[in-house]
Structure formats: C-alpha cells, structure tokens
Amino acid sequence: MRHYELMVILDPDLEERTVAPSLEKFLNVVRKGGGSVEKVDIWGRRKLAYEIKKKTEGIYAVVDLSTEPDVAKELDRQLNLNESVLRTKMIRPDAR
Amino acid sequence: MAKPPVRKPKKKQNPLKAAGVERVDYKDVSVLRKFISDRGKIRARRVTGVSVQQQREIAKAVKNAREMALLPYSSSAR
Predict the structure, then answer these.
(1) CA nearest A35: which of A69, A7, A6?
(2) How far apart are the first and last CA of chain A?
(3) CA distance, residue B69 to nearest chain A CA (Å)
C-alpha cells in the first residue's frame, strides 16, 4: 500500500454539485481494490494559468488515498479516458 | 600595482525558507510565486538565496504547478 495524492482538473461546465458524486464514482476503483480514500478536498472553480481545451477555468479537486500501485495506475487511466477531466496529476508525497 | 578591491558579495540574510515552510509543495502557489519572476520564469539561486537542495525542490514544485495550470509557463507581461 502506498500513499498517493491525486489532483484533478474537471470541466468547468460541470454542475458544482455533481462534482462530488462523479469523483466518488471514479474513486470506487480504489475501494474495490482494497485501498482507502482518506480525504477529498474540492477546491472549486479556479482560473487556469493558461487555456486547456479552450477552457479558461477549471474545477480543482485534491484527493488523498492509499492503495496498491496497480490500482492507482488504473484510476489515472480511467480519469484520463473521461471527457470531463481536463488534467490529472498523481503524486507520492513521501517519495522524495 | 594596486590590486583591484576584492568584492565580498553580501550574504543573503535568510533563505526565506527558514522563516517559512519546510517542504515545498506544488499546491502552495502563494509561496511559489515568490520564486518566479513576473514573466513566469524560475528565479536563479543567486537571486533567491536558498540552498541547492531547496532550489531543486522549488524548481520541481514550480514545474508541477505549471503542469496543473496553477502557474503560467510564460506570461506575456511586457
């Protein structure tokens, strides 16, 4: 088990209140894989420093989770397949 | 022959880190802002006055922040 920190930028056209449930859906992979989601922090709408997919805004969310490496990889893959996800970053804060 | 006067560069007071956070985080934009110029470039170590290790951490954090559109790659100020 490893601790990961995941940051996602979601499409700003998404309704604010649908953000949490749709994130949960993604994170189900982690729970099924025997991992745990420790914290979900939704920053909300934020201006992007530059345009991504012609969007000037994004909905930011930061998730703390611990899981197996394979599951983390799979989660990242599924996020990147989704149209409403502009960008993701998975980081291991304690590996440095 | 008069020797040219040896210039002792002023030692930077404190590396700004000592009075701030340990461990640089790419999410901490307000801290990282101090280490980039107004054009968005990473400031050199001789300007920031931090240690080699800290500068490396800062550079990495800035680059991560850029990837997530928290900081600009370049800003066309000027």
Answers:
(1) A69
(2) 17
(3) 5
pTM tops 0.90, yes or no: no
B51 and chain A: CB distance < 8 Å anywhere?
A: no
Q: Is the ipTM of this complex over 0.85?
A: no
- Chain B partners within 8 Å of A48 (Cβ): 69
Other Cβ atoms within 10 Å of A65 Cβ, number: 23
Q: Which of B68, B70, B64 lies closest to B30 in space, CA to CA?
A: B70
A83 vs B1: CA distance, rounded Å? 74
- Are the C-beta atoms of residues A5 and A62 closer than 8 Å to each other? yes
8 Å CB contact of B68 and A52: no
Q: Per residue of chain B (78 residues), what is the pLDDT tens digit? A: 677 777 766 666 656 655 566 778 888 888 888 899 989 899 998 888 888 888 898 899 999 999 999 999 987 755
Half-sphere exposure for B56 (CA within 13 Å, toward CB): 4
Chain A touched by B21 (CB under 8 Å): no
Residue whose C-alpha is closest to residue A66's, from A86, A46, A95: A95
Nearest of B12, B67, B73, B16 to residue A88 by alpha carbon: B67
